[in-house]
């Protein structure tokens, strides 16, 4: 006789994924509204700012941001097309096929302002009772 497995872990995973999507959408919206950048663009600035010499190969960046090579290339190109001066591309001297992307001083300033906005938004999100209630099973998973 077949017995249906307990789907609680699957349901928890789906709940957590749904919550993450809701929060991501909120962060995306606030960054677009206040800084005219996407969350992925914010991640690019963040990872470049934290990188040694504040530059990374496009391939490294795509792995960190979680985009394909073509999507990463389009994202950097769109950023450059905005003509806001936050990124700069360089050809690698050791390997002419490799391209580095670096953050500029303008990029650092944009990142600093956007980081403040993002932290404020996250504080508001996690202060909400509804979010706290949704997170409860993940904070204390064995108490339910």
Automatic annotation (TrEMBL):
Matches recorded under InterPro entries: HTH_MarR-typ (IPR000835), MarR/SlyA-like (IPR039422), Transc_reg_Sar_Rot_HTH (IPR055166), WH-like_DNA-bd_sf (IPR036388), WH_DNA-bd_sf (IPR036390)
Superkingdom in the source lineage: Bacteria
SMART domains: HTH_MARR
Record's keyword terms, sorted: DNA-binding, Transcription, Transcription regulation
Domain (HTH marR-type) ranges: 7-144
Matches recorded under PANTHER family: TRANSCRIPTIONAL REGULATOR, MARR FAMILY, TRANSCRIPTIONAL REGULATORY PROTEIN-RELATED
Protein name per the record: MarR family winged helix-turn-helix transcriptional regulator
Protein species of origin: Paenibacillus thailandensis
Record lineage: Bacteria, Bacillati, Bacillota, Bacilli, Bacillales
């Amino acid at each position: 006789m077949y017995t249906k497995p307990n789907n609680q872990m699957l349901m928890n995973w789906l709940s957590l994924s749904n919550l993450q999507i809701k929060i991501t959408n909120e962060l995306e919206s606030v960054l677009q509204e206040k800084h005219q950048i996407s969350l992925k663009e914010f991640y690019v600035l963040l990872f470049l700012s934290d990188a040694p010499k504040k530059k990374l190969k496009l391939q490294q960046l795509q792995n960190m941001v979680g985009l394909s090579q073509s999507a990463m290339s389009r994202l950097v190109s769109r950023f450059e097309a905005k003509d806001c001066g936050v990124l700069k591309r360089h050809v690698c001297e050791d390997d002419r096929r490799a391209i580095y992307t670096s953050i500029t001083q303008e990029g650092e300033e944009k990142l600093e302002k956007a980081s403040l906005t993002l932290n404020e938004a996250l504080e508001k999100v996690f202060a909400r009772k509804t979010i706290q209630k949704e997170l409860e099973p993940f904070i204390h998973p064995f108490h339910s």
